[in-house]
What we know:
By secondary structure, this protein is mostly helical. The protein is 76% helix and 2% strand.
Amino acid sequence: MRRNWGIVVVVIVATLTGCGDGKVPAAQWASKVCAAVGPWRAQIEQLNAQAQRQVSGASSPAQVRTSLMNLLNGAAVASENARQAVVAAGVPDVDGGDTVAARFADSLSRAREAYRHAGSDLASLATADPTSFYDGVVAVMNRLQTEYAASALDTSNLDSPALRDAFDGVDQCR
Length: 174
């Protein structure tokens, strides 16, 4: 009798800790990913709008740099938070699910790094000469755009019909 209770405890612990292959149904994974990416996009938009307002009202290069650094640092943090949420979503239970999950996480990692690189570059710009500073800002933002565009993940070419259907079926994903 004592042995049976031990088996029951092992089964319960294994069930509660998620023992197994760790894969989740495609629809559940898509829903979790979209729940992570949707707020991330909204936060990036909010940070951009805030920076635009602050920059348009700035009276010095130092104020512009502060506003843009807030944008870049906030976007890097938001990207990392979204990446962590995507990783926490697990792996979709589809062929190539490991690869798909890794591609989503990698895309957000590269976006985070694009913002970090831009922040580092912007922080190194001297503000004493406004013309040089603003030329530098243009160059930093152009590099950011290039790196950010390279980080984009095209979900239209997912190899999994089950995942395509899952993303199409989740309101947050549209």
